[in-house]
Amino acid sequence: MGVKVTVQWAGFRATMAAASSSRKKMPLKFRWTIAFLVVTLSLCFADDDHEMEEFLKREHSLSKPYQGVGSSSSSHWELMGDAMVTTEQVRLTPDMQSRQGAIWSRIPCHLKDWEVQVHFKIHGQGKKNLNGDGLAIWYTKERMQKGPVFGNKDNFTGLGVFVDTYPNEEKHIERIFPFVLAMVGNGTISYDHERDGRPTELGGCNAMVRNLKHDSFLFIRYVRRRLTVMIDIDGQHEWRDCLDLPGVRLPQGYYFGASAITGDLSDNHDIISMKLYQLTVLRSKKEEEEEEDVITIPSVDNMDDEGMSGIAIFFTVLFSMLGCIFLIVIGLVVYSHWNENRRKRFY
């Protein structure tokens, strides 16, 4: 991301230096053509993310051998409901009916930019669409409160990312389950269980995560008020885009957690690890001024306009690439025309 931009501009400086040292050999017009092409490529293929560094925050992370889990006041994580710790995972629910469990951090997170990587596993004896109901990853004001939303309370305040494994809505032809989706709540918005959360979802993707023989991961990043969700479920150690939305406003000082629930259908819902990283991001002066306001209530700017469907993202990327190719072709035509005129001067 940021490294790519740095490398490209380093190449640009080297190109310009070489051009400067050979001015007698290279005409001015041609030097500017080369510079134009280099800058165009840099802008086209550079990511809009700034350079960033990440630091693991152990007090907010959960991993083997789960020494920080317990009921004492000194522990960093607390279990709720049917959740239990084993040597291999934190099992939120067993593959049994009518169970719900959760694990919550005791320490509020005051990071401005962060990233959480969740290693999880969902498995059970049920066949396709005869299993349920799914698990959720939370960053919310409330903690340790049972409820119907994947084992957490409804009308929550904060962010919920859900791995929904069972379709409740009868007309679900256009959506393949399991499905990963995200929702931001302000304390008054209810999750529509019967419609699988569609009225309030920010976006999502299908993710075939049940009974996998390889590891499955969920990636949630919040940086510069932009929420990004990705998954790695194919065993290739590659992230796949699921959701990318700007204008998401999340207050600091909320709690991370994970929960799951079963009903008439069931599954084992396991958390192997949750690792939180602090991101240090270089901001422009303008961005710092825009983000000076303290966020007190979670919200999403222009939710109906900002969200992009998968088709919209595809065509945006396609036309961006075509625009870059067009600029490169124009540059080559200009150079070819100059070179042809240069040859004519010798006759």
TrEMBL record:
GO terms for biological process: endoplasmic reticulum to Golgi vesicle-mediated transport. It comes from Haplochromis burtoni (Burton's mouthbrooder). GO terms for molecular function: D-mannose binding; metal ion binding. This is Lectin, mannose-binding 2-like a. Its main location: membrane. One of its GO terms (cellular component) is Golgi membrane. It comes from the Eukaryota. It is a single-pass type I membrane protein; Single-pass membrane protein. Gene3D superfamilies: 2.60.120.200. InterPro entries: ConA-like_dom_sf (IPR013320), Intracellular_Lectin-GPT (IPR051136), Lectin_leg (IPR005052). Residues 54-279 form the L-type lectin-like domain. It holds the Pfam family Lectin_leg-like. Coiled coil: none annotated. Keywords: Disulfide bond, Glycoprotein, Golgi apparatus, Lectin, Membrane, Metal-binding, Signal, Transmembrane, Transmembrane helix. The chain crosses the membrane at residues 311-335. It is found in: Endomembrane system; Golgi apparatus membrane.
